[in-house]
Amino acid sequence: MRLTTILLGLLMGSLSLLPLTCAAMADDKSTLLRVAYDTDPVSLDIHEQLAIGMLQLSHLAFDPLVRWNRDLQLEPRLATDWERLDDTTMRLHLRHGVTFHSGNAFTAKDVVWTVQRLKRSPDFRAIFAPVERVEAVDDFTVDLRTRQPYPLLLNLATYIFPMDSQFYTGTSAKGQDKSEIVKNGNSFASNHLSGTGPFEIVSRQPGTRIEFKRFPKYWDDDSPGNVDRLVMTPIAESATRVAALLAGDVDFISPVPFSAVQRLRHADGVKLVTMPGTRITMLQLNEQRVPAFRDARVRRAFAYAVNQTAIAERLLKGFATPAAQMSPKGYAGHVSTLTPRYDLARARELMRDAGYGDGFSVTLMAPNNRYVNDAQTAQVALAIAAMLAKINVTVEFETLPKNQYWAKYDNRAADMMMMGWYSDTGDSANFFEYLTFCPDPDTGAGRYNASEYCNPQIDALVDRANLTTRPDARAQLLRQAEQAIHDDAPFIPLYWQNLAWAAAERVDIAPVLNVMNMPYLGDVVVRSR
Amino acid sequence: MIPFLIRRLCQAVLVMFIISMIGFAIQGGLGDPVQQMLGPAATEAEATALRHSLGLDAPLWAQYLDFANDALHLDFGRSYFFHEPALSVIARYLPATLELVAASAVLTLLLSVPMGVFCAIRPRSWLSQTLMGLSVIGISVPVFLTAMVLIQVFSIGIQVTLFPADTGWGHWLNQLFSIEGGMPAYGRGNPVHVLGVWYTNFATLQGILYLLLPAFSLALVMLPLFVRLIHAEMLEVLESDYVKYARARGLRPSRIYFLHALKNTLLPVVTLGGVQIGTLVAYTLLTETVFQWPGAGLMFLDAIERADMPLIVAYLMVVGLLFVVINTLVDLLYRLLNPRITLSGRAA
Amino acid sequence: MSPETRSPATVWRRFRGSYFLYRLQRNRRAQVCLTLFVLIMASVLLAPWIAPSNPYDLAQINLLDSELPPFWIAGSEPAHLLGTDVQGRDLLSSMLYGARVSIAIGFGAVLLQSVLGTALGLLAGYRGGFVDALLMRLADIQLSFSTLMMAIIIGAVVKAAFGGAFYGDYGVVILILIIGLSEWPQYARTVRASVLAEKQKDYVDAARVLGFSSYRIMLRHLLPNTLTPIFVLSTIQVANAIMAEAALSFLGLGMPETEPSLGSLIKSGFDYLQSDSWWITLLPGLFLVTLVLVINLLGDWLRDTMNPRLHKG
Q1: To the nearest whole percent, how much of chain B has pLDDT over 70?
Q2: Assigned domain for B178 exists
Q3: Of chain C's two ends, which shows fewer C-beta atoms within 10 Å, N or C?
Q4: Measured between CB atoms, does C272 come within 8 Å of chain A?
Q5: What is the pLDDT of residue A372?
Q6: A369 to chain B: nearest residue by CA?
Q7: Does residue C273 belong to the interface with chain B, where contact is any CB pair within 8 Å?
Q8: Which of A382, A391, A393 to mutate against chain C (most C CBs within 10 Å)?
């Protein structure tokens, strides 16, 4: 080491011993909450994009009809009560005395208007495809009607954040239709907002900062939330986000990168909350590209060769739950007996039986992430290549930046593709519909089925489950499907990455967090200092 | 003077032309910005419409002419990712980089001048020998490695357990050699707003704390070069007749060293400094990556990842312009300091 | 250099009597450096035979062996002297193979830049005029832009244009091209300066009067006289090229994970720096520094010994 390094080192070393806490004494307004997420909502129009940042905004400035609580149960919000009239109709009773930020009163016609707009939104229309009609029975009663029996109507209702129909109707000063949905454009709705939520927008600089204040006429008098002012700053680099929290520049960060978990757990003045996540990461084996993958024995051999536990513990530092199926614990389709089946001898035996004892060569693609300290999917891909080498399979792998990766993914450009999937409905069927259904470009079924796997029997099981409105019978069907997929192994499930949030000690964050990663900041309590 | 400036101007235009061609050539290869902006759920019609509205369906040469025309009006297009003019994105990120470069330039000068001078005056002292030896090692250490060592030592800290901890002296020695760490290693902290798009790290103690490690690692790249250069030039000057004459006249040694001799070593230092500023900017790409310093280098690497063409090209243009301006200034300064050279424009 | 036959014995005798050896015997530092250099080169060339395992053979890697510490820290395993990385690869083997890649790129790039730069430098110096002005202007621009910056830009363009897979498959060749193309001006300037000095001398005039072609004069008369500075410059340039490769790999524009160079080893360790496994980063880093330092010191010594007319750029 150079002498200057040593000299300056001594200087800096002594500096570093000084408590850095002076930085933490910034602001004294006890009811200010400064939040740093990794992304920024791209627009104020919550129907413009289906993305986590937009949903987080929706929970701040709007209210859903119903929402998930910590135990993955639904709790009433703008809908106070609901009943099934028949297999295809659900009647929702709406809350009285709710006011929009604009001052307009909330009624059934706002719900009808919002659902119709959702069915027009390019990102949401697929989710709302099952809904055939929505009609107002009276001012505070709405009927949702589906084409076929659809058991997940209430899950869908978590995406209905009633918008102020009067506010968004008409023509703006610039001559635009106020209800228009424009992607990446300058529509009225992308710059103006009126919801029923706990916070109204004070100012917004895209990509830099959004400032909210508590909506004085918020309907929920039972909410313990005491935040008066909320400032949201996007910080994309996870290490910077962590540093900002530790320095006291922000009060709440999400997500916390796995490599910072240990540090935050032991840091003073900071509280870490973790939960097992619900996003499954898997490796899809393309049967169209690789004839060998049409043999179930080969697919099973691959599944036996991969050691999910080692990946989760070694590469992801225990910050992921090793997976042997798609549905995480708590989902209807979760089969508790399915555990990672790593068994190298069995894998080799299956390869021999299938006539591939000498192996073969495949390609693998995975997205990579240039930011330090984020989950290193490239490292996971390399580890898998090494594991498959032990059954004589040569893996040529390539990692790509995310934007280039998805283009390749759509073209099914490699024999094995890494895929992360999160069920938008909070339900097992969603995994099957997108990841294992026989691909059908017309219906969009199996759109992310890069295994190109097609098993009509499993599809039929899930279809039947989707017509079964009785929860236990439905769960039974989904568990059967999960078991069947496990046995047939068209993909290798890898892990569910855990979720983590961290906040300053005085922010009581735990009660408002959930596995859907939608912090209900309207209810958060901040202790004064 | 005038022909020199004209020649420089021509060179600048040539450089800018080449850079714009390079930047433009990247366009084909870097992913599809349309796909990235719309996401996977978009229909073909929506993609075509957006491609048309961005002008991505025109022939390549037409796109270039369009681009060149706008560039002359200081318009490098709108960043696909930030939805704002590329130049204002750069204006937002550049101050962070410039502050980093400035801080490390100052550090380099403050450290290299005394070291170089000392080594020349006392060539036989053990400190000089050590410093000169270290300077050779210095040019052999890549900047990202120094940066990582700094993070490990001053941010993460080192726990020494070499000595038996159960004995009093062992514990004491362990404590002595352990470093707690805790220096901020990532990002810029919370810079203070000055004016326009300029947020500074220099205004608060905490800001300077964030700046220290990145600036220091960047300074360590240049330090060995400067120490060696100042040392060599100083030795040469000390041998010259007028220093000998000054000595003979009985001037105080400190006056000779720091006024007469040092002044004459400044010339090559300025030249080297000018050349090295370019290298310094290139190295910011590395330091900013290690320290996640939100400057123009990090932004550039992100832009490459996001296939954000306008931003990539604008960055290359701005950096190219910066280099040309700095080189011209250095040449001018060189000629001012050394009147014997005429400004005929011959390469130095 | 006359092409008459030389028996190995004559060459040996000439070497024993040479000034070079005389100086070497009197310089302890040069001896140490040369020994280290020869040791590193030998171990690197013999890596397939002396390395404990083959880091390119994925079947030999076991994830359960990951992040084992080097031998002097508790928890180490004798099979992995210098520990393992996050994938469970033996670090000593990775370093030997990685240095092999780094050195191959270093020498390849220097070969390319010296050939290119020498040719252009000869041309510029001998022809003068417009060719000279154009080439030197180009060199100026490239140098003012800093060679590392050039390399990063070219690397980004190539990677973007041909995709990561292509880049990975031809990594060594691409890096040689990138570094070679971005560093040629160093040679061109040095050679041009030598040529300008030589051109004034009588023997060049004589050759011209005798009616020799320009190419013959350039190759047979001017080139041999520029060889010493080229040789000295090359030593330093090898060190620079190895550093440049490491920087590119660190930015993700270099060798892929599966075929790591020293630079990519450092990079992959950096991603895990926070997890306390410092050896994954710092041991390859130390090796890189040693290698570059040894070459730099040898270069310094050669310059002092041979004292060529180096053009300081």
Answers
A1: 84
A2: no
A3: N
A4: yes
A5: 43
A6: B305
A7: yes
A8: A382
Residue A266 touches partner C, C-beta closer than 8 Å: no
- Strand locations in A5-87 (E): 32-37, 66-68, 74-76, 79-86
User: Residue C278: its chain B contacts at CB < 8 A?
Assistant: 152
Interface mutation target, options A403, A406, A447, chain B, most CBs of B under 10 Å: A403
Q: Is the ipTM of this complex over 0.85?
A: no
The count of structural domains within chain B is 1
Following DSSP, what letter does each residue of chain C receive, concatenated?
Answer: -------HHHHHHHHHT-HHHHHHHT-HHHHHHHHHHHHHHHHHHTHHHHSSS-TT-GGG--GGGTTPPPTTSTT--TT-TT-B-TT--BHHHHHHHHHHHHHHHHHHHHHHHHHHHHHHHHHHHHH-HHHHHHHHHHHHHHHHT-HHHHHHHHHHHHHHHHHHHHHHHTHHHHHHHHHHHHHHHHHHHHHHHHHHHHHTSHHHHHHHHTT--HHHIIIIIIHHHHHHHHHHHHHHHHHHHHHHHHHHHHTTSSS-TTS--HHHHHHHHHTTGGGT-THHHHHHHHHHHHHHHHHHHHHHHHHHHH---PPP-
List the domains of chain C with CATH numbers: 106-307 (1.10.3720.10)
pTM for this entry: 0.78
Question: Are B148 and C273 inside 8 Å of each other by CB?
Answer: yes
In a domain, B28, yes or no: no
Chains that touch A (3 or more CB pairs under 8 A): B, C
In a domain, B46, yes or no: no
- Render pLDDT for A98-130 as a digit per residue (tens, 0 to 9): 999 999 999 999 999 999 999 998 888 888 988
Is B27 within a domain? Answer: no
Indicate the average pLDDT of chain A. Answer: 86
- Dmax (CA) for chain A in angstroms is 81
Question: Which residues of B, range 20-59, sit inside 8 Å of A by Cβ?
Answer: 30-33, 35-43, 46, 50
- CATH code at B108? 1.10.3720.10
